[in-house]
Specification:
3-stranded antiparallel beta sheet, alpha+beta, 5-stranded mixed beta sheet, N-terminal domain of TfIIb
């Protein structure tokens, strides 16, 4: 049995296993903190600072997603300083990002009382939409630089390293290398970056087209679970079906095999299912 540590969270004493993060410890006593860049299957990136908490004896606020709990810590999750920090984080992100498809960011803004236009009118922030392949679209106006896509493309999942953060300050952006289009990069189109994106900055081409045509309706989508038939690994697929047509494929984040990650065949190789030409040629 591992060694445990004891700390207090908002005055409540809690014992957790050694190696537990402050965010996990807060969850155990239902004092959950908001997160944006954190993902259950990815390494903490410490990018968004939405999960900061106040730690007695520490001058700066600390990121609870990566700070490991230590014996005797006194943690405060809802002080005025913490609330103001989260509010400013939301306001800064809203000033440069389209939060239309970012429910976690919108929730953070609502909970913190953020003023969406507080920092607007500053530096120019016109971001392009990159449609350079038939599988997924990169809409940089929605990107909050959470690093999730970079982590999924790296050692946490795909190990392709096709994308990284380039530039500084307002010029920082997710790049496939020297401004290249994806077809010219090392991308293998697994779509795992799309699966972990929290804002819709990365979105399947089918969904993007349907949304632009006002045809996408979440209320009409049903989800059917099945097993991918392309190989013998046993990846579980969630088929998102609308009007008797597959419009998106995902995998459960808690699945013991995939952990939400798939290959290009599993995520995008479904068109044959609804191809009338294919059925006719085999009849």
């Amino acid at each position: 049995m591992g060694t445990s540590v004891t700390l207090t969270i908002d005055g409540e004493e809690v014992s957790v296993s050694q190696g537990t993060t402050l965010r996990e410890a807060c969850d155990q006593v239902s004092h959950s903190v908001p997160t944006l860049c954190w993902h259950e299957n990815l390494s903490p990136a410490n990018a968004c600072r939405a999960c900061v908490v106040e730690l007695k004896g520490s001058r700066p606020l600390v990121a609870s997603c990566s700070r490991i709990a230590e014996d005797g810590m006194e943690v405060m999750t809802n002080t005025e300083r913490v609330r103001n920090a989260r509010k400013v984080v939301a306001e800064l992100l809203l000033s440069t990002s389209d939060a239309t498809l970012a429910p976690d960011l919108r929730h953070l803004a609502e909970e913190s009382g953020a003023q969406a236009g507080r920092f607007s009118g500053g530096a120019s922030w016109e971001q392009p939409v990159r449609v350079d392949n038939e599988l997924y679209v990169r809409d940089f106006s929605k990107c909050i630089l959470c690093y999730r896509c970079v982590e999924a493309c790296g050692t946490d999942a795909q190990n392709t390293f096709a994308i990284a953060v380039a530039g500084r300050g307002f010029n920082a952006h997710i790049d496939a290398g020297f401004g290249r289009d994806l077809p010219e990069s090392d991308c293998v189109y697994c779509g795992n970056c799309v699966a972990v994106c929290p804002t819709g900055a990365l979105i399947g081409k089918t969904e993007w087209d349907m949304r632009n045509q006002d045809q996408w309706d979440e209320n009409k989508i049903s989800v059917t679970e099945t097993v991918c038939s392309y190989c013998g690994v046993g990846c579980e697929l969630q088929l998102h079906v609308m009007d008797n047509k597959i419009v998106k494929v995902t995998s459960p984040m808690d699945h013991p095999i995939t952990h939400g990650m798939l290959c290009v065949k599993g995520r995008y190789g479904y068109e044959f299912v609804q191809s009338e030409d294919g059925l006719a040629s085999n009849s």
